[in-house]
Amino acid sequence: MNDHHPTRDDLRLPDVLLALGNPIRLAAVKQIATGECICSDFVTDVSKSTMTHHWRVLREAGVIQQRPEGRVIYMSLRQDDLEARFPGLLSAIFNADQVASG
Amino acid sequence: MNDHHPTRDDLRLPDVLLALGNPIRLAAVKQIATGECICSDFVTDVSKSTMTHHWRVLREAGVIQQRPEGRVIYMSLRQDDLEARFPGLLSAIFNADQVASG
DNA sequence: ACAATTGTACGATTCTATCCGTACTATCAA
DNA sequence: TTGATAGTACGGATAGAATCGTACAATTGT
C-alpha cells in the first residue's frame, strides 16, 4: 500500500475542495465522519479498484487517514488537521448537506 | 452570451466545491468577493477564452452572477444564495485562505 | 498447506478539464 | 461608418479523472 499522507502544513485548500467535489467521495467522507470505516464499507456503486482510486485522492488531499490493521484498512477523518488549517470548513460542508439534497 | 444561472434550489454542493477546487477560479472568486469585477480584470495568466471557460464553470455552479452592461460583464458573488444553502461555507473558504498559502 | 478475504497495482478505456488560437458579435466612441 | 474594446463560441490539442477487469500481495482461518 502506498501510504503517503501529507503533513498538516502541506494541506492545500484547492486540493481539499477538489477531493470533496465528487459525489462519491463526499458521501464517503460524510460516512467516515460518523465513525471509523473500512474500505469495503463503500464498495456498492463502483468497483473495488475504483474506490481504491477515490481513497487515494482523499488521502493525498489530506482529508482522510488510512490505518492498515491486519487485512483491513481503517479510515478516519483528519478533522483536527483540517480544522487547524481550514477552520469551519468541514462543519460547513457537513451542515450544508443537511440543508438540501446536494 | 450563454447566461444560464441555476436557481438557489438547484445549487449542488459537489458542483460548488469542484468549481472552487481550482486555483485560478478560487483566486478569481476571492477577488470578486472584495467587490464587483469585470472579466478583463483577470486576463493575466491565461487567455481570454480560457477565462471565459472558468466563468462558465463558476456561473453554472451558481458561485457567481454575471450581469452584462454595455460592453462589459459585471460579476458578483452569489453570497446570499450560497449562504442560504451552504451556511458558513464561503466564510470558511475565505478565512481558510488567510491561514496559510493554499 | 490451502482457501478465503481485503485490499492494491497496473493497463486500458472513456470521459472531462484545461488551455489556446481564431473567428465572431455587440457596444461604444470618433 | 469605421475602428477599438470586451467578451463569447467553436474546434482542437493535451492532460487528467473515473472506471473497470485482471493480476497480485498480505493476512487469517481451517
Looking at this protein, list some descriptive labels.
globular; 102 residues; homodimer; Arc Repressor Mutant, subunit A; DNA-binding; alpha+beta; 14% strand; 3-stranded antiparallel β-sheet
Detailed description of the structure:
2 copies of one chain form a homodimer. Chain A has 102 residues and is α+β, with helices and mostly antiparallel strands. Chain A has a single domain, classed as Winged helix-like DNA-binding domain superfamily/Winged helix DNA-binding domain (Arc Repressor Mutant, subunit A). Chain A is 50% helix and 14% strand. A 3-stranded antiparallel beta sheet of chain A has the order 1-3-2. In chain A, strand 2 and strand 3 form a beta hairpin. The model of chain A has no long low-confidence stretch (mean pLDDT 92). Chains A and B meet through helix 1 and helix 5 of A and helix 1 and helix 5 of B.
The greatest interface between two protein chains, and residues involved on each side, is: A-B, 29 and 29 residues
Overall geometry of chain A = globular
In the residues of chain A, how many domains can be counted? 1
> Which structural class do you get from the secondary structure elements of chain A?
alpha+beta
Q: Which CATH class of chain A is shown?
A: Mainly Alpha
Order of helices and strands of chain A: HHEHEEHH
- Largest β-sheet summary of chain A: 3 strands, antiparallel
CATH architecture identity of chain A = Orthogonal Bundle
Radius of gyration of chain A, CA atoms, in whole angstroms: 13 Å
Helix run count of chain A? 5
Overall mean confidence score, pLDDT of chain A: 92
CATH superfamily of chain A: Winged helix-like DNA-binding domain superfamily/Winged helix DNA-binding domain
Biggest sheet of chain A, strands in spatial order?
A: 1-3-2
- State which percent range the strand residues of chain A make up: 5-15%
Q: Which percent bin holds the helix content of chain A?
A: 40-55%
At the fold tier of CATH, the topology name of chain A is Arc Repressor Mutant, subunit A
